Amino acid sequence: MNKRVYLLTIVSFVVGLVELILGGILHLVASDLNVTLGQVGMLISIFSFVFAISGPILLSATAKMERKKLTLITLVVFLFANVLAVMSSGYWVLLIARIISAMSAALLISLCVTIASNLVSEPYRARAIGIVFMGVSASLVLGVPVGLLLGNAFGWRAPFVLIVLLTSLSILFVALFMAKIKPKPSVPLIQQLKSLKNMKVILIQLTSFLFLAGHLTLYAYLTPFLQSIGIDGNWISIMYLLFGIAAIIGGGIGGLLSDRYGPQKTIIGIIALFAVSLFSIPFTTAFMPLFIIVMMVWSLLSWAITPAMQSYLIHSAPQTSDIQQSLNNSALHFGIAFGSMSGGIVIERSTVEMNAFVGSIFAFLALIVVGLSMKKSLQPKPKETDLPLKKAN
């Protein structure tokens, strides 16, 4: 494996940290900027929404630029955005910083994936892309606990200071170790959208959207939820640590289940259990050991679905699998945006305990949608060359 792929993985990890880093310190930001928890939660929603839209558009718009130069320029913009976040004295300045950060992060993740796939030969391409996405997945899992630990110790700006330092190192390493890479023809945005004519593919992408929306409806507000049931201080950090461990384990378990039972059965089972665990969380808070178990099951399942969904998507649209992976990334971030926005609305108008119930509704909708995608009428028809030959009598 080309060593520069691991450099790109580090970049994707650093960039990905920013998306959910506010999740654990909502109360600190809200108190300092004199706004509500829901308004701070909207900063996560806006980031994810801008991220989902910006990735495909900016990648197409910069298709003719030399890739190393483009990566460095975008990293500098990302650095500026996070310096602005550190210096922000009001909500609207932080909002602008989040928008700039999201746009540059979306382009950087897309660049990391495309550059990694071009650095290796065809047999290693999928593995290289998978390694880069490990950086993204790890950042989404660790973003909240990192923000929580630093925020509680040094104030809510501390996590952004860490991002500034890590981004500065990333710029240095890319400048020193990344060779110039000529741009390759990219798939036009219109052609990417045309690939969604397939109803089965649309339903799969919608499933990813609804599943992540359900997850983030509660996860984006997990800190105030934990505080509402009497958990505070270092115990919140411990809860996030357990959550992160379970999520990382979930990714491995999901891959094993998908290989053994097939992606369709795995997806149905995971979403069903996920919805039940999410719905039951408020009923387990009176008995802490049970609550911790259910919370870890919820976390494990939230990432266990990823390998099966990717496999199902590739099997359903093999001719446009690369495009579908990119669009699925956008669908996931739209889900994060919608879920955190929905959670903010719920917490403003009701209690944080209701976030779990609303999230479970999104999860049950995801179960219905993915079930529809598996109808026989939507299954890809085999070509004549794929049909088995009749044996001679």
Say how many strands there are.
Answer: 0
**Rg, please?**
21 Å
User: The CATH topology of the largest domain is what?
Assistant: Growth Hormone, Chain: A
Measured by DSSP, the beta-strand proportion falls in under 5%
CATH homologous superfamily name of the largest domain?
MFS general substrate transporter like domains
Q: Gap between N and C termini, in Å?
A: 51 Å
Mean pLDDT: 85
Number of domains: 2
CATH C-level label of the largest domain: Mainly Alpha
What descriptors fit this protein?
393 residues, mainly alpha, Growth Hormone, Chain: A, 2 domains, 79% helix, disordered C terminus, transmembrane, MFS_Efflux_Transporters, membrane, MFS_trans_sf
Question: What would your notes on this structure say?
Answer:
InterPro entries: MFS (IPR011701), MFS_dom (IPR020846), MFS_Efflux_Transporters (IPR050189), MFS_trans_sf (IPR036259), Tet-R_TetA/multi-R_MdtG-like (IPR001958). It comes from Shouchella lehensis G1. It is a multi-pass membrane protein. The model is unreliable at 383-393 (pLDDT under 50). The chain has 2 domains: 1-186, MFS general substrate transporter like domains (Growth Hormone, Chain: A, Up-down Bundle); 187-375, MFS general substrate transporter like domains (Growth Hormone, Chain: A). 79% of the residues lie in helices and 0% in strands. The protein has 393 residues and is mainly α. It has helices spanning 3-20, 26-33, 37-61, 67-87, 91-119, 125-154, 158-177, 189-194, 199-219, 222-228, 234-261, 263-280, 288-316, 321-349, 354-373. The radius of gyration is 21 Å and the shape is globular.
